[in-house]
Amino acid sequence: MSLLTVEKLTSSVGAEVVGVDADRLASDDALASAILDSLEHNGVLLFRGLDIDPETQVEFCKRLGGIDYSEGHHHVPGIYRVTLDTSKNSSAGYLRATFDWHIDGCTPIGDEYPQKATVLSAKRVAETGGETEFASSYAAYDALDENEKQRFASLRVVHSLEASQRRVTPDPAPDLLERWRSRPISEHPLIWTHRSGRRSLVLGASADHVVGMDLDEGRALLDELLQRTTTPDCVYRHEWSVGDTVIWDNRGVLHRASPYAPDSPREMLRTTVLGDEPIE
Ligand code: OGA
Ligand code: MN
């Protein structure tokens, strides 16, 4: 019998894991490895009503890889509080950029690679909005025709924090703009050839322009590809209940939050599993 029972949520992305509890996730090495395998195939795994506490969430994630312990505005190391409430997270303003499709970690401060996986658990949910949506960037590559696969093989794209922040704050004050611009920009291939041999598209809010292509033409291409990747029939949209936990393969899916009010009580506890694979 397989260690893990999953039920697909859509044909291209997402599956619900049934019959596991939080304590097993935090203690069973074989289960952790089955979860990583399943994540590679399904992109997103949902544990409905898991009710995992923050310490147990970090224990679970430690079995999947290294953990990001940077400041998370929460008393448990390894937990980052996702909320728009600046009294709970002084950097909350930046989180409005989660309303656009993105891949985490495309504009690192140092030479870090994009995160391998991210876990979000719902502590409080929004009255309206606040669903999280996912689309497979592997499926997006696979759906290109042969001619496109060839044409795009050599394209490189510049990613910046400014590009993702401008979408939600189009008219920044000079000091804010300066802070965005102090973050290094990154250049990535449009097509990521993973160590597994699979290929995916590297798109999303941080993608600013295509190197060597007319600015508007390149942006139109990026917009078109993002649209084709995220048509409703390619998306799993998770409507949160308190206690749900979701994990996604940050290297093979794009994600975004549906907008929710700045004063919404919505609060997600996030743990990030660090990446060990460059985009190449
Ligand atoms: C994130 C993120 C989406 C959400 O934490 O990286 O994109 O629904 N969150 O809060
Ligand atoms: Mn994100």
What is the percentage of strand-forming residues?
15-25%
CATH class, named Alpha Beta
Radius of gyration (CA) equals 18 Å
Share of helix, binned: 25-40%
User: CATH superfamily, called what?
Assistant: Clavaminate synthase-like
CATH architecture: 4-Layer Sandwich
Structural class: alpha+beta
The pLDDT mean sits at 96
Tell me about the biggest sheet?
A: 7 strands, mixed
Number of β-strand runs = 15
Globular, elongated, flat, extended or rod-shaped: what is the shape? globular
CATH topology: Double-stranded beta-helix
| H/E element order | EEHHEHEEEHHEHHEEEEHEEEE
N-to-C span: 37 Å
Strand order of the largest sheet: 1-2-3-13-5-15-4
What is the topology?
Layout: E1 5-8, E2 15-18, H1 22-27, H2 29-42, E3 44-47, H3 54-62, E4 80-82, E5 117-124, E6 132-136, H4 137-142, H5 146-152, E7 156-159, H6 161-168, H7 174-181, E8 186-189, E9 191-193, E10 199-201, E11 207-210, H8 215-229, E12 235-238, E13 245-249, E14 253-257, E15 267-273
Parallel strand pairs: 2-3
Antiparallel strand pairs: 1-2, 3-13, 4-15, 5-13, 5-15, 6-12, 6-14, 7-8, 7-11, 9-10
The structure holds N-oxalylglycine (OGA) and manganese (II) ion (MN).
Manganese (II) ion binds at residues 98, 102, 104, 255.
Account of the 3D structure:
With 280 residues, the chain is α+β, with helices and mostly antiparallel strands. It has a single domain (5-273), classed as 4-Layer Sandwich (Double-stranded beta-helix). Helices cover 26% and strands 24% of the residues. The chain contains 8 helices and 15 strands. The chain has helices at 22-27, 29-42, 54-62, 137-142, 146-152, 161-168, 174-181, 215-229, and strands at 5-8, 15-18, 44-47, 80-82, 117-124, 132-136, 156-159, 186-189, 191-193, 199-201, 207-210, 235-238, 245-249, 253-257, 267-273. The strands form 4 sheets. It has a 7-stranded mixed β-sheet, covered by helices on one side. Strands 12-6-14 form a 3-stranded antiparallel β-sheet. The chain has a 3-stranded antiparallel β-sheet with strand order 8-7-11. A hairpin with a 5-residue loop joins strand 9 and strand 10 (199-201). It is globular, with a radius of gyration of 18 Å. The relative contact order is 0.24. The model has no long low-confidence stretch (mean pLDDT 96).
